[in-house]
Design goal:
Pfam families: Glutaredoxin (PF00462). The protein is built from 3 helices and 4 strands; from the N terminus they run E-H-E-H-E-E-H. By secondary structure, it is α+β, with helices and mostly antiparallel strands. Helix 1 links the parallel strand 1 and strand 2.
Length: 82
């Protein structure tokens, strides 16, 4: 199964840091994008998310994209731990 995980956030966000620690503990690879950078901010705004962290999970087998806003441990467990 081929998935990519992209996290939109920044290093000053407590929940972003908690998310990064959780992903690393679970050995889940991800790309971090800092929303304080202008080009990333523009990209982030296309998702109409109400806050950070924003997690985008693209599944290339099913050709789907899942969006999770915030550090929602239960939702993350259901998504990644099967």
């Amino acid at each position: 199964m081929k998935k990519t995980v992209t996290v939109y956030g920044n290093d000053n966000c407590h929940f972003c840091i908690m998310l990064k620690n959780w992903l690393e503990k679970k050995h889940i690879k991800y790309a971090m994008k800092d929303v304080n950078q202008n080009d990333v901010k523009t990209e982030f705004q296309t998702y109409n998310a109400q806050g950070i962290p924003l997690i985008i999970i693209k599944d290339f087998e099913t050709k789907t994209e899942q969006k999770i806003v915030g550090f929602n441990k239960e939702k993350l467990e259901k998504t990644f731990i099967k």
